[in-house]
Specification:
This protein is α/β, with parallel strands linked by helices and about 325 residues long. It has 6 helices and 13 strands. The chain has a single domain, classed as Rossmann fold. Bound molecules: zinc ion. Zinc ion binds next to loops.
């Protein structure tokens, strides 16, 4: 260091101090939004990105209902990405910020880069929860279909994978030709737990009714690394015991897939609510911290419904 740099004139010192002050001010301004963002996920809460904006179902009513359900538990903090068709080209969320992505999206394909970043996110341990018609989305996106296990409509057929259903005490993979995705008339269908030891279903009654809605049947997909936790008999449809709750592992990622949740009314079904809560928590963390649900709360002789505000917070 030269002596001149050590001996600033008062004016030079003043400018240096001003520069330092400005730099400090600038840095604080630049940092503060980041700090605000980081502290926005409250300690102990699961951060969820809910994606919607296109669906052949009433997503404008369904998404707020799902937000109410999850937020009522005080366990989740939800951000919402609404992606109408005209905004798809610019859809590029920061997936890594979230413990789990909850999709209520059935619409136009995402840009290639967004699909790639999503695949990377899930493969490396990001997580996904898929509700009802979200499994109709992206018929041509191979990796998405790997993630969801089974899907319907959109030209899905035997080229996309087998039908999968429960028969005589085991799951059948049925490669017979035919279209993927159908449903009978809405009714209060009976959900039967087939795996009582999984964290999502352990602590639930082994049979219960879901509120009146259509039941998806004859879905098709790769169905790899998939476990079916619960089925329902598709009376007036395929007449098979169809998958209702599924888990899939994709790379290090966990996927929870429910075919329940046709509209905001059936989302008042305690069956939909309790399985969404438990399934989303499991996808995000690999465990379920919610207490068991009794047969009084989730009965099989009637379809229990409640307003999301009546869901008890997790203590
Ligand atoms: Zn539906």
């Amino acid at each position: 260091m030269t002596s001149s740099s050590l001996n600033h004139s008062p004016r030079v010192r003043q400018i240096t101090q001003l520069t330092l002050a400005l730099a400090l001010l600038f840095n604080l301004t630049a940092i503060s939004p980041l700090l605000a963002e980081d502290s926005s996920t409250e300690a102990g809460k699961i951060s969820v990105l809910l994606v919607d904006g296109q669906n052949n179902h009433d997503w404008k009513a369904c998404s707020p209902t799902m937000i109410n359900i999850l937020e009522a538990t005080k366990r989740f903090q939800i951000e919402r990405a609404t992606v109408p068709k005209e905004a798809v080209a610019n859809f590029s969320p920061d997936w890594e910020k979230f413990d789990v992505v909850l999709t209520n999206y059935n619409g136009a394909p995402w840009p290639e880069q967004t699909r790639a970043s999503f695949e990377k996110y899930i493969k490396e341990g990001g997580n996904l929860a898929v509700v009802h018609a979200a499994d109709n989305s992206f018929p041509a996106w191979k990796e998405y279909n790997q993630m969801i296990g089974l899907g319907g409509w959109g030209g899905r057929n035997e080229k996309d994978g087998p039908y999968v259903y429960w028969k005589d005490g085991e799951f059948i993979r049925d490669d017979s030709p035919g279209k993927g995705g159908a449903h009978g008339k809405p009714w209060e269908y009976k959900v039967v737990i087939r795996d009582t030891e999984h964290p999502i279903t352990k602590g639930l009654p082994t049979e219960f009714l879901q509120a009146k809605e259509e039941l998806y049947d004859r879905l098709r997909g790769p169905a790899e690394n998939m476990e079916i936790l619960a089925t329902a008999l598709a009376t007036g449809g395929s007449e098979r015991h169809e998958p209702v709750l599924m888990t899939i592992s994709y790379g290090k990622g966990r996927v929870f897939h429910t075919v329940m949740g046709h509209d905001a009314e059936s989302m008042r079904g305690v069956a939909f609510q309790e399985t969404l809560i438990r399934g989303t928590e499991w996808a995000a963390t690999g465990e379920v911290t919610f207490p068991p649900v009794t047969a009084d709360e989730l009965p099989v002789d009637r379809a229990a419904s409640r307003h999301p505000d009546d869901i008890k917070p997790l203590k």
